[in-house]
Amino acid sequence: MAREIAVLKRMGVEIITNAVVGKLISVDELMQDFDACFIGTGAGLPKFMGIEGEHLAGVYSPTSF
Q: Which pLDDT score is estimated for 65?
């Protein structure tokens, strides 16, 4: 993955990580500074179903799986 990131950076792509879009910076602010913007939200917190045994050993959340 590091090789792909290096290629993107050589092409002029600026990569900003750990930015809370909507709190630290708005999409409108990003679009003022950049021609295009990709927002990768990542995987959110797991949502459990509230059923018996879902927290037992060997039971995985979708994000852990």
A: 67
Give the mean model confidence (pLDDT) for residues 32-57.
85
Closest CA to 21 of 52, 42, 1, 46: 42
SS3 category, 4: helix
Q: What is the mean pLDDT of residues 2-9?
A: 94
The tally of CA atoms less than 13 A away on the side-chain side of residue 26 is 3
Rounded CA separation 39/34 (Å): 13
Q: What is the SS3 assignment for 11?
A: coil
Q: Residue 63's closest CA among 38, 34, 49, 43?
A: 43
Distance CA 37, CA 30 (A): 7
Write down the pTM of the prediction: 0.52
More confident residue, 17 or 41: 17
